[in-house]
Specification:
By secondary structure, the chain is of the alpha/beta class. It has helices at 2-12, 30-43, 58-63, 72-91, 131-138, 148-157; strands at 18-19, 23-24, 48-53, 95-98, 103-107, 121-124, 141-143. Strands 1, 2, 3, 6 and 7 form a 5-stranded parallel beta sheet that branches. A two-stranded antiparallel ribbon has the order 4-5. Helix 2 crosses helix 4 (72-91).
Length: 162
């Protein structure tokens, strides 16, 4: 529902940035998610920040009978593949990606997002071993939480992870 709400907000506002904080990669096919996000970016005239995360809330997975990968490394790898698919679909005429978890073959996304080369990608999470490495590789922003000392530690780790 978050993208439906963002579309409605986009239609009745003109200045605020719109974002999901954050959508789990497990809840939608990544290519479909990229198309939904591009549509919100178009409706908002380029005001979307694409918030994505690996997912962690087991009850939510259980409620909808979605498989919950127990290992954080699997969830992070799925998120990274989903981000790569979105970036390709937003920028290439026909996107192809063959990962361990997701594949697309000459997929078309038209019209493309308004923001070039793509909407900013905000990655949710703060794991120092995996998530912040993903932020360094693929993110334009990250969603961190905690007290000032915790946030400082995370930012100290972040530049070293790439």
């Amino acid at each position: 529902m978050e993208f439906t709400t963002l579309s409605a907000l986009a239609a009745v506002t003109s200045k605020i940035r719109l974002a999901t904080l954050v959508t789990s990669v497990a809840y939608r096919n990544p290519a479909h998610l990229a198309k939904i996000a591009a549509s919100v970016d178009i409706i908002s005239r380029g005001r979307l920040t694409f918030g994505i995360g690996a997912g962690w809330h087991i009850p939510e997975y259980q409620q909808y009978n979605w498989e919950f990968p127990e290992k954080p490394a699997v969830r992070i790898a799925q998120m990274e593949e989903a981000i790569q698919i979105a970036l390709k679909m937003w920028s290439e005429p026909r996107a192809t990606f063959h990962g361990k978890y997701f594949q697309i073959n000459a997929a078309i996304l038209e019209p493309k997002s308004v923001q070039k080369p793509h909407p900013p990608v905000m990655i949710g999470g703060s794991g120092e071993q995996l998530t912040l490495r993903a932020v360094a590789r693929w993110g334009d922003a990250c969603n961190l939480f905690g007290d000032a000392a915790t946030i400082k530690t995370k930012f100290d780790v972040l530049p070293l992870t790439e």
